[in-house]
Amino acid sequence: MDEQRQSRYGPTRRQLMWVGVIVSLALLIIVISSYLFGWKWTGLPKRTLWDWLQLLIIPAVLAGGLWFNQQQRTQELQTADKRVQDDALQAYLDHMSDMLTPKKVQPSLADERPPKSLRSVARARTITVLALKSPGSKSIPASHTTAPLCRTVRSATDERCCLR
Question: What is the pLDDT of residues 69-78, one digit of tens each?
């Protein structure tokens, strides 16, 4: 997802990952060298393979558990975001169908000349849902969304929002 999006002054996830990899490799080289060359200054006497496995199994299980937890959390966030988008789309469709259904007491978009306010509301809802369904996407041309909305709801003092 957004690996690079974090605090402005803090390290990114990618940078932290590389630091972790480098530190792990350095420690692994020291441990293997200590085992092979019998370095006494490391405090790691000659041990059997089973001793090393017992020593390293807990950090490996913890790292695997943390990685799995992070993957699961990312999946939950994506699912929740999709659910919010689907709910917004469903509410939009419900409101638009109400606005399109002809009624005797209330004007609708199906009328020959629907009121401008009703068209403005429909246009605003459409723009909002399109923005929710594709945030940051260039698939919605600005001329089809911003300019018509601005023409209907702009005030006399706010001319800058319209695209010409």
Answer: 999 999 999 9
